[in-house]
Design goal:
This protein is mostly beta strands. It has 2 helices and 11 strands; from the N terminus they run E-E-E-E-E-E-E-E-E-E-E-H-H.
Length: 227
Amino acid sequence: AAENRKMRELKMVEMPFSSKISLKPDSNLVHFETTIDNHSSDHRVRVKFSTGLKTNKHYAHNPFSIIERETKEYSKERYAKEFPTPLSPMHKMVLVEDEKKGLALFSEGLPEYELEKDTGNLFLTLFRSVGFLDRDDLINRAGGVAGLNNHRSVLDAQCLGKMTFKYALMPFSSPWKENFSKINESCESFHLPPLLETRKDGLHFKKLIPRLKVEPSNVILSTIKES
């Protein structure tokens, strides 16, 4: 940000990045692994997916539910202190669909997304660099700060240096509710693949794990252990 906090600086810096996109033989997901070496401050970096879906509705996973949301336009004049943002939170995934098809986006520890109004463009925030936890001159909160007026710098929040992000896409046939068991199974597999821990002399048990199957798909495996 420039010193007047109204625009970006004109000086450019390099920000090398690479993305590895993979298809695995035992998965119906497109896996992404993006590494960024961030040298810039006061900015946000997002991934844009052009879904081609004609909808403004999106369905976000939360700890105990799937929440339906809709991207809308707001008149800023209606809100004296703080106006709504198009950004939304998710826990493990967000679903977008039209009458025939849909797309699920899974993210590993990346909770912020946006479905752009009328375009079908889905954005996933990889990181947001900030120098202060709060300010009294924010454009989207003209009424002042919320809580502590903290004008002390928090350098680590600029997220400088190398970072790696993992996320995945899964296509499905709409409506998502009729395919949710399979979507949820893939989501759990992405976030929590089986973790094997050998106890005592349980090597014979270890040989059984590769043949383990959990059916039906709406059952979520927590733990299996030797009796």
